[in-house]
Amino acid sequence: MRILYPFILSLLLFISSCSRPRELTFMVGGSPNELLYWEKVIGEFHEKTGINVKLIRQPTDTDQRRQGIVIALRSKSRDPDVFLMDVVWVGAIASSGWLEPLDSYIERDNLDLNKFFSRVVDEVDRYRGNVMALPVYVDGGLLYYRKDLLAKYGYTAPPETWEELLQMAKKVQARERRKNKNFWGFVWQGAMYEGLICTFLEFSSSFGGGITIDSTGRIVVNIPQNVEALKFMQDLIHGYKISPPNTYTELKEEEVRLIFDQGNALFERNWPYAWGLHEKNPELKDKVGITKLPHRKGKRSASTLGGWHIGISRFSDVKNEAWEFVKFVTSYEKQRDFALNLGWNPGRVDVYADTVIEKTAPHLVLLKDVFENAVARPSLPYYSGVSQILQKHLNSALSLSETPQEALEKAQNDIDEFIKKYED
């Protein structure tokens, strides 16, 4: 009996440990209210499944979030098991072999991918035919405007073209500055970070250009339409002077939102998240409208595809539990909750027809086609390197250190050299 006792005790401990649900780790960043909501989601998931989730908090800054994920994956750490990825990271992380393919899980549980934005899944979440991630929410650049100020100065509708925006902004800015010297016609993201690529892609595409990949696989940025668009961006600051001088030094999403939120701008380019925050401001309540971004006369409006996608680490030791969490986060119910509580645009198409969404967040329904037709940045393993090169030269043009033509010529040459070295 004395011999059997240690064996029986070990067996009982083994059975006990196996019966306890294993903990999975979820890495995510964002604003304080977003992180608080993720805590709530985790609690609901545990209540439903009995699976414990440990939240690994990341900062708001997207570059820092990416670095934290890459460091963990490069070291083949078992944590995090699940994480959110910006839309432009998915291709690079998948090409590194760090993501668990989701096809077998999707097939096993009969998850209908047609419920999601199919173009987003195909262009962002697939790598070499395999589904590597799923969209939690989608984004697209929008134009926010002050309905009350447009009406005050005789305008019945927001601008459809950049020419109309310029005319409206110049008039309203001049009049409003009689009592508010800090008022600007148009605020947008121009600092040297990924957000500058997004705004440039919108301007350039709406001028008939864009960031393209030719038949040889070469990334093309130096084309006349892009030069014209960059010159317009430069003139908004230095020529027409309807955008602040610190646009190219300081203005990111939150800086832009705060200027508008403080009543110091007529037009704002920002992502959909800003809508709910503006609506909570009693000074702006019912005074803010949103619409598609303008375009050059004779061209089409363009919105950069943004958003965050959820994936499972290939090095996770709790992949089945991780998949359950992915399913939970991308379910109809949770996608609906994200829309109602955080103002996020669901990655699922079917949620946009929800009667509560239609009643409480009609702007999401109206702008659904913005997300369906948004312009994607190149999905490439080496995209981050291309982005850094382009950020540098675009910002140099906005600061008048380079002409738009010089900036795009240098960017093109540097990108060509970078890709050549990468492929060698």
Structure description:
With 424 residues, the protein is an alpha+beta fold. Helices cover 49% and strands 14% of the residues. The protein has helices at 4-19, 32-49, 62-74, 90-95, 103-108, 118-125, 147-152, 162-176, 194-206, 224-238, 253-261, 273-280, 319-329, 332-342, 355-360, 362-366, 368-372, 383-398, 404-423, and strands spanning 24-28, 53-57, 82-86, 126-127, 130-131, 134-140, 142-146, 184-187, 212-213, 219-220, 265-270, 288-291, 305-312, 345-346. It has a six-stranded mixed β-sheet with strand order 2-1-3-13-6-14, sandwiched between helices. A four-stranded mixed β-sheet has the order 8-11-7-12, sandwiched between helices. Strand 4 (126-127) and strand 5 (130-131) form a beta hairpin. The chain is globular, with a radius of gyration of 24 Å.
Average pLDDT figure: 92
Question: Widest sheet: strand order?
Answer: 2-1-3-13-6-14
Quaternary structure of the protein: single chain
Structural class: alpha+beta
Query: Roughly how many Å is the radius of gyration?
Result: 24 Å
Poorly predicted residue ranges: 8-20
User: What portion of residues belong to β-strands?
Assistant: 5-15%
Main beta sheet: strand number and arrangement? 6 strands, mixed
Helix content: 40-55%
Distance between the termini: 69 Å
Shape: globular
Structure summary:
This protein has helices spanning 4-19, 32-49, 62-74, 90-95, 103-108, 118-125, 147-152, 162-176, 194-206, 224-238, 253-261, 273-280, 319-329, 332-342, 355-360, 362-366, 368-372, 383-398, 404-423; strands at residues 24-28, 53-57, 82-86, 126-127, 130-131, 134-140, 142-146, 184-187, 212-213, 219-220, 265-270, 288-291, 305-312, 345-346.
